[in-house]
Amino acid sequence: MRAVPEHFARRHPADLQAKMEAASRPVRCILNRTLLGHETSEADGVTLFKATGADKDAVFATADEMRRQTNGDRVTFVVNRNINFTNICYMGCRFCGFAKRAEEEGAEWLSPGQIAARAQVAWDRGGTEVCVQGGLHPNLPGTYYRDIVLAIKAVLPDMHVHGFSPFEVWYGAAKSKLGYREFLTDLRDCGLGSMPGTAAEILDTEVRKKLTKNKLSTEKWVEIICTAHDVGLPTSATIMYGHVDAPEHWAAHIALLRDVQRDTGGFTELVPLSFVHTESPLYAQAPGQVRPGPTEDEVYLMHAVSRIMLNGFIDNIQVSWTKLGAERARQMLAHGANDMGGTLMNESISRAAGSRHGQEITAREFCDIIRSAGRVPVRRNTVYDTIEVFENHDPEEFAPLVARQNADPCDFMKMFPVAE
Ligand code: SF4
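# iron/sulfur cluster complex -> structure
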C-alpha cells in the first residue's frame, strides 16, 4: 500500500519518497503528518525514537528534509571560548566528572580579572562570544556572577557573554537572597547576553533523583529558563541522554521544551549531549544499571527526532563535537543537525568526563568539515545572526590556542582530497 500523498512526491526528493514507501504504515503516517506541518505528539516521538530498519531510514530522511526546508544548505558555527571559572563544586551530581573538592589536585579558581584576560585572548583571535560556566563553589558570593560579567564588559563591551546555567542562577539567586527575576534582570543589566540551557539533563523527576539527587528540580529548571526568556535573555536547550533514561523520557523532555518554546520563543537551539561514562561516578558505582552512553543509532535518532518534534518551534539543532568527535559530528549534518556549535578554544567539561575529542576546532577547520559534507559554512553570532558566509574563501587561520599534544580532532579529514 502506498500512503504517500501525490503532492508529497512533487514536493520532496525521490530518495525520501523511496524511504517512506519502505517504512511501516504507522511510522509512515507519523512522518507524513509531520511533513504536512502537523505537530508530532509525544507518543509518536517515542515510536520514532524506537524505529529500526527501514523505519529508521525514513526517520533520518524526513529529518534531513526538514533541515533542508528550514536551514537550506548552510551550516553555522560560532567563534567562541569556553571559560570554566571554577571546577570546585560540592553538589555531588552523580554523572559529573568535572567537579573537584577545593583541596583536590587540579582544583581551579579564576578571578574576574583572569576571566576578562581570557576573554581578551578570545577577542584577539576573532571570538564574538565567551561561554562562562563554573561549579557551585561553597564560598562563592552571589555577587560573583555579576562581577564576572562586569569585568568582561569593562574591557570588551562588544563581547557577547553567554553565561551561567540554570543551576548557577538557582545558586546565585539563593546566595544573593534575590528572586530569579531580580537576579536575572541584574545580570542582564550588567551585560549578560544569553544563557546556556545546561543542567537540564533529563527533565523527569525520577531520572533526576538518580542523576542529581533532584537538587535542581524540573520545575525549577523550567521556571528559571522561562524567567530568563521573559527578561530578554535567550537560552539554548539541552538534553543529556544515554545513562538511566529511555525513549519515553526523551520524547517527554523534547515535548516539554516545545511547550516552553510555544510560550516564550526564547530557545535559540537544542544541543543533544550524549552521556560520557568514562570518568563518571554514576557509571563507576553501578555499571550494571547505567548505560555507557547512547548507542550509535540512538545518537542519530536523537538528532533526527529532535528535528522532527521541534519542527516550527526550534530551528537549530546543534551537534556537540566535544561529545561525539568531529567525524561523527559531521555525520549528524545528514540526520537533522544544522549547527556545529563553537570553536570553544578551551573545552574542559567533556574532557574531565573522559571525552578525548580535543579542546578546539578552529573556524578554518569547521569550514573544511562543513564543505566536505557538501554544505556551505556560515559564521554566526550567539543568537544565529549571520556574520560571514564562506562560499569561496576561508576565515583567517589561527593555530589552536592550546597545543594539540596527542590527537588532532580533525585527523579524519585526511581521507577527503583537497581541491586544487
Ligand atoms: S554537574 Fe555542575 S553542579 Fe553538578 S557536581 Fe558537576 S559542576 Fe557541580
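# post-check
The pocket of iron/sulfur cluster is lined by residues 89, 91-93, 96, 98-99, 135-136, 167 (CB under 6 Å).
Residues 6-71 form one domain.
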